[in-house]
Model the fold of this input.
Amino acid sequence: MSDKKRKRVLSGVQPSGDLTIGNYIGALKQWAREQHKYESYFCVVDLHAVTVPHDPGELRAKTREVAALYLACGIDPQASTVFVQSHVPAHSELAWLLNCVTPIGWLERMTQYKEKSGKRDKESISTGLLDYPVLMAADILLYQADVVPVGDDQRQHLELTRDIAQRFNRLFGETFTVPEAMIPPAGARVKGLDDPLAKMSKSYTGSDYHAVYLLDPPNRVKKKIMRAVTDTDPERKIIFSDDPEKAGVNNLLEIFAALTDMDREAVLAHFANARGYGDLKKAVVEVVNETLAPIQQRFHELTSEAGYIDELLAEGAERAAAIANETLALARENMGFLKPHRRL
Ligand code: TRP
Done:
């Protein structure tokens, strides 16, 4: 079953917040496109979502929703293994083993931890927030993943995963594949519509006009995109540019290019006769809505059949556990745990 001829890929999204067109362009669309090239594992990382305060009912609902969106965006559950992290207990167990080979200084140096914990006092943040990257390392190493597609903001966590794998292998013998990060190209990093210098985030709640969500109705999409921040360039130049002044226009062009699969030249030619930013925005509204319509339709089909997603997730967890348990057994053995005796 586990053909190691193809490289293995693993990635995951937290079931917190609503998935955005940034998640689609930067992650899901690429996963779907590449899923046959690799032996693919895509999980909904619910254990990561409880590192910050959460609502239990919402966590449950979002976990199903994110899984359904994976499929609606083109992940084929026959070709790829789609599962929920907490359904495979090996993730938690390997995280403990890895905790004990991970110096705490490595975790305290993580930028994301420093940012998330920085302004808060240590009495109000969980140990899980500090330990988050070790659980992520467990997610990856359990599947002996070769390649891990992640956003640019996760680069450091991938480095840490490699360090943990190498340290474990050195201490206890060859156990884990040391994975490579696969970071999407700059063009696939969608920025906030309200603030085109910041990454479009699914958990940002500061403005209603920050992100387009995958389940937004067409009129909402239109309102958000028509309001997107552009610039006061008197010439109204519609160009790809890394000048911060042009970040808003650049972001709209990148979204258009990513969703139409057009190259930059073709995109610029397409807008050569545009009259101002209004035309650009209208064109982006149109391609976004054309992209979202079939995704939303598929999402509603998948979720309207009671138990369908849960059944697929059960099957995914079974397939995932078969691989994960094998790696966990090897890690336990190499670390020196006594094997439980099998009574006759
Ligand atoms: N930390 C990742 C993020 O916020 C999510 C994640 C958890 C993940 N475990 C993973 C991504 C394993 C890739 C592989 O984006």
In short: The chain is about 50% helix and 5% strand.
